Amino acid sequence: MKEKINIRYDDKHQTFHLSNRKFSYIMELRESTWLLHRYWGPKLSAYYGSNQPAAVKRTFAAALIPEIPAFSLEMEPQEFSCPHQGDYREPSITLRREDGCLAGRMQYKSHEITDTLHVPTGLPHIRPQEGKSVKTLSIHFLDVVSSIQLTLHYSILEDSAAIIRSAQITNLGNSPIWVERALSALIDTIYSQEQLVTFYGTHQKEFQLSRQDISHGRFSIGSVRGASSPQYPPFAALCTPETTEHTGDVRAFQLIYSGNHHVSAERDQYNHLRIAIGIQPDGFCWKLLPGESFHTPQAVLTYSSQGFNGMSQEFHKLFSEHLFPPQWSKRKRPILLNSWEMCYFDVSEEKILRVIQEAAELGFELVVLDDGWFGHRSNSKSSLGDWTVNPEKFPNGLMPLLKYAKEKGIQFGIWFEPEMISIDSALMRTHPDWCAQIPGYTPLLGRNQLVLDLTRQEIQDYLLEMLTNFLKAYPISYVKWDMNRHITDPGSQDLPQDRTGEFFHRYILGLYRILEELTARFPDVLFENCSSGGGRFDAGMSFYMPQTWCSDNTDALDRQAIQYGASYLFPPSAITAHVSAVPNHQTGRQIPFAARAAVSSAFNMGYELNILELSSEDRGQILTHLAEYKAEQEFLFHGEFYRLHSPFTGNDCAWMVANIEKTRAIVYFFVREYDTATLSYLLKIPYLNPEKNYVVKNTRQHFSGKELICAGLAIQPVQGDYPIVKLELNAEDTAL
Ligand code: GLA
User: Fold this and answer.
1) Nearest CA to ligand 1 atom 11
2) Taking the CB of the first residue and of the last residue of the chain, which one, N or C, has fewer CB atoms within 10 A?
3) What would the mean pLDDT of 241-268 be, rounded to a whole number?
4) Rounded CA gap, 359 and 480, in Å?
């Protein structure tokens, strides 16, 4: 039987060839010493070096072998790069010895190929799946002078275009070394035309797409905020200028990490392009004792020949099957109603009981009590850290709410912001030293709060115990885990002088430890990730929490772009989207209900508006929408999501969900403004089956799949503000 995945080492040509039916990735071991990048693209059955230019001797280029002056790492495409070996581009590792000198002259030592997935210790990672083959190539390099080993891990899976890369640095010597930079993946290519796609954003405006030419020099994005951040998620993609959503080559990189990260693209004088991704080197320095290893987070690299939708399909499938907590990957999510935009901090037993009653009547499946329920919290200035029920607002505790929800047949969820501490809190009064701080400086407030020092095991243990006791005491089905500020004072009283550069990474490792244990203790609690919306929406958090509140902006126009952008990286099941009130609380826009409902519906849909004061018209609309959504939810949740028209480039936005067989598709088409000069829109729907005929559900029009793909569907402009068109297409067996 033909192997579904393959990692081959060809001794004669000294090449490593990783492949499955979707791609080949080829490296060469030059002079049995240096690892060079040779190819990454569609599957090749064999490779004999056809794309290798002849080496040219250049002035200023350092020669590794005096007899071969034309061979210099300055010009060679590499898989990792260490400083001081003649490669003057961005390095992937920087190691310093105890004597202060730079180390890291790495030379190939050995490799092994295993049938397992490599898992970096203490970090979220791609998980194997039962019955599916995986393979890992681990290549070891040695700096014999300084006794340091570098291992590069490459894991591949059956049926996925992804390559999972990480690096491991091991101190084999007798004295400590300092790891000042340890990126997860680096690739050099000698293509000259590729463009770079990244995302930028801020609070309430996450996942804004940027596509640019890469000119000479170094361009980088990243975070030094202690969180992956809404500013720049840890993602980058290279594409050709011709690449579209539907066609063309894409090579994408995503880091499974939630802390400070770094992504860079560098074009050098020879037009060679280097792309690197990993932990942010600024402010990072890790002391590695003899015998210890440092593991970098995993970087997921994926190749698509079918444009950005092809890339997203790879990420969506990989994350759904191999990243999210397995018990949640196929499990239907409850339709929730969140109290935040309905009550803000003004929650009480009386109010939430009424909310539960009304929510159950309307057809919601989960009521979430957001901020405001604990300590003496009535605004953002107090009580973070005091996770006991506010006795004035909830004189009988939470049990009456849980009991009532149960009686009404719906679930109950709650909001926490465990990593934070308010100055006005009992926790702060008891443990004033528990917040992150640098001796001598008063720690700075952000949203009126300080950050707990999660590098300390004592604080991790405290949080674990507090949350465990809480979830044991109350039969809660859902927890929203929030994190509403970034870190300004990266210091811990536990970190000695020579380890202060470990703060940010240790913080994230501490957080991961808490999440790992907590989610294992409560596998049936649905955890939703949040950081003022999508402030820490990354593959690392998604390992523990299968869904994320992707923006505090619930405006249905702004959300089109935010969700469209987020869908590059994550499947819609992971992106929560709530129908909210008008005028919208963030923008004041008055977007009709139909558009608000439609924008949320292809994603992980919920509501966040005052259901206690609904007009009968609103009530009717909600009832109709929830009934329609429930009928479609299964299909939407398991379907494949495709972007059709980008809100970043035009007046309209469109996406669709289709089942795998392409016998059913729901298409959403959103228009920003009615334009009198637009007589008709044209929507091409490339993801249908060209062999099938389709009927449009509402209009009963019949079309062939091929004509919808090639000629497109004319859509008549609808008057009014923010019109939407929703179409359902069903394949039919009868000929046209
Ligand atoms: C953040 C979240 C909101 C809400 C508030 C509560 O901003 O993103 O959804 O939970 O905190 O303070």
Assistant:
1) 532
2) N
3) 98
4) 19
